[in-house]
TrEMBL record:
It comes from Porticoccus litoralis. SUPFAM superfamilies: EF-G C-terminal domain-like, P-loop containing nucleoside triphosphate hydrolases, Translation proteins. It is found in: Cytoplasm. Keywords: Cytoplasm, GTP-binding, Nucleotide-binding, Protein biosynthesis. GO terms for cellular component: cytosol. It comes from the Bacteria. InterPro entries: EF-G-like_DII, EFG_III/V, G_TR_CS, P-loop_NTPase, PrfC, RF3_C, RF3_dom_3_sf, RF3_GTP-bd. GTP binds at residues 15-22, 83-87, 137-140. The lineage of its organism: Bacteria, Pseudomonadati, Pseudomonadota, Gammaproteobacteria, Cellvibrionales. Residues 6-274 form the Tr-type G domain. GO terms for biological process: regulation of translational termination. This is Peptide chain release factor 3. One of its GO terms (molecular function) is translation release factor activity, codon specific.
Length: 523
């Protein structure tokens, strides 16, 4: 059994937009030697290399629509960082990406504290008790009282916070951080944000050097640290791994300060690839047999080929170039000669991948989100969610002769999770559902750009969608007969109820108690 996977650290960053996710990602890539100078990776407002017209659109809008994967070595670890879209209209993508990680880094804006999206993402992490490391960012600004921030993490996010280092001053007076465990001050020196900074250390808060460094404030700071030691949680590895306690680091991503300390501990503490649940059994990463699941499909990463890449998390065994995989849903063995790996957004051919790694498979339409691949066994990994959309539009063609292209386009876009599509049973409408408004814009843009279809949206009287589940076929037939306007099939062929109002949904649920109306569906 290969133990190579044990140095893998596969994680994603969760944060509210503007907290500093992009900035900290870039600094991590500096430490991983994937870039030499920060400021070269895509910046929201900086000029950025667009790999397709569609991404041109995201550039114009200043949002990141797509997730990508970055792999880099750090110390003895091989780190896999899964990027997630920052805009909440694409949150489904983020939720699914979080099913493919073993830990998460939570970035909090020190001036703003715990914000909405962080709360939501934390809820998703909690579903699997994902261990979380926290980074309180922007210490170079006037932030909120760090004790208050810790309290907020505990009360709002319901997780114990254990500070590992403590900030000394803030804003213009930011002097550095004090490591509560090693009794070392890491001294802040501004202006080193673009490269790997020097790590200036002063040993001992009671030392003469510390007195010199902290000058006038030294007594206050010593007192504060005493207080912090008494009033906060101690770090506990077991509680961290159980998702019940988060180690908290303070720093400034922009100045690349505190990031290294966080990363050093991250590779040490964050879990190696964890076992995954499949329908019939648990799959452990050290198993000989290969297995993995697809959590994301991204279209047209290369505009010349108009191809789609399925992102697969390897859960056990080893991928080797040219190997045969069993595509469980369609029951076929396929030879994979050209899986790709990801380095700072660039694709590279992978020869080998182990549990925890992410590989990209070229998808010619046969792979869907949630698909499991194995070395032969009929396994089905669970827990990849699909959420009922919150917004609905009827989509209409400008040119009625293009119905086929429209259907094909919507089918593919729904398979890759860019939108959801519903076909009501009693008419020829096509209803498109999204979690956020921007998803509609992206779909219209891509239909035109990739499928040559010009479509317009019209309002439609749908409040929400629910997947119908039941063994009671009679009741299902009754529903179809009595409420013909409300029943549809989605892009994957699943029976769905389209409710016109909240009241309508409640009434239907009451009348058809034999049926389950689900707001989420596991893929
Ligand atoms: P996001 O991906 O989480 O949305 O955040 P991003 O890294 O883009 O950071 C949001 C803004 O916060 C950026 O400024 C960024 O420069 C700034 N920022 C990130 N980390 C720090 C920090 O440690 N200290 C300070 N003072 N600012 C920080 P912007 O003006 O919106 O963008 P830009 O023009 O700098 O690109």
């Amino acid at each position: 059994m290969s133990r190579k996977f044990q140095n893998r650290r596969t994680f994603a960053i969760i944060s509210h937009p503007d907290a500093g996710k992009t900035t900290i990602t870039e600094k991590l890539l500096l430490f991983g030697n994937l870039i030499q100078v920060a400021g070269t990776v895509k910046g929201k407002k900086s000029d950025r290399h667009a790999t397709s017209d569609w991404m041109q659109m995201e550039k114009e809008r200043g949002i990141s629509v797509t997730s990508s994967v970055m792999q880099f070595p750090y110390k003895d670890a091989m780190v896999n960082l899964l990027d997630t879209p920052g805009h909440e209209d694409f949150s489904e993508d983020t939720y699914r990406t979080l099913t493919a990680v073993d830990s998460a880094l939570m970035v909090i804006d020190g001036a703003k504290g715990v914000e909405d999206r962080t709360i939501k993402l934390m809820d998703v992490c909690r579903l699997r008790d994902t261990p979380i490391i926290s980074f309180v960012n922007k210490m170079d600004r006037d932030i909120r009282d760090p004790i208050e921030l810790l309290d907020e993490i505990e009360s709002v996010l319901k997780i114990a916070g254990a500070p590992i280092n403590w900030p000394i001053g803030m804003g213009h007076d930011f002097k550095g951080v004090y490591n509560l465990y090693t009794d070392t001050i890491h001294v802040f020196k501004p202006g080193q944000g673009h490269t790997i900074p020097e790590d200036i250390q002063v040993a001992g808060i009671d030392s003469e050097e510390a007195t010199e460094l902290l000058g006038y404030y030294v007594d206050d700071i010593r007192e504060e640290i005493e207080l912090v030691r008494g009033a906060t949680h101690q770090f506990d590895l077991e509680l961290f791994l159980a998702g019940q306690l988060t180690p908290v680091f303070f720093g400034t991503a922009l100045s690349n300060f505190g990031v290294r300390e966080m990363l050093d501990h991250f590779v040490q503490w964050a879990p190696a690839p964890q076992p995954r649940l499949a329908v019939d059994r648990e799959v452990t990463p050290g198993e000989e047999q290969f297995s993995g699941f697809v959590f994301k499909i991204q279209a047209n990463m290369d505009p010349k080929h108009r191809d789609r890449i399925a992102f697969m998390r390897v859960c056990s065994g080893r991928y080797q170039q040219g190997m045969k995989m069993h595509h469980v849903r369609i029951g076929k063995d396929i030879r994979i000669a050209d899986a790709v790996g990801f380095k700072a957004g660039d694709r590279v051919a992978v020869e080998e991948a182990v549990a925890g790694d992410i590989i990209g498979l070229h998808n010619h339409g046969t792979i869907q989100i949630g698909d499991t691949f194995t070395g032969g066994e009929d396994l089905k990994f669970t827990g990849i969610p699909h959420f009922a959309p919150e917004l609905f539009r009827r989509i209409r063609l400008k040119d009625p002769l293009k119905t086929k292209q429209l259907q094909k386009g919507l089918q593919q876009l729904s398979e890759e999770g860019s939108t959801q599509v519903f076909f009501p049973l009693n008419n020829n409408d096509i209803v498109v559902g999204a979690v956020g408004q921007l998803q509609f814009d992206v779909v219209a843009y891509r239909l035109k750009d990739e499928y040559g279809v010009e479509a317009v949206y019209e309002p439609v009287n749908v409040y929400t969608a629910r997947w119908i589940e039941s063994d009671d076929n009679k009741k299902i037939e009754e529903l179809k007969r009595k409420v013909p306007d409300g029943v549809a099939v989605d892009g994957g062929g699943h029976l769905t109820y389209l409710a016109s109002t909240r009241v309508n949904l409640a009434l239907t649920e009451e009348r058809y108690q034999e049926l389950q109306f689900r707001a989420t569906r596991e893929l």
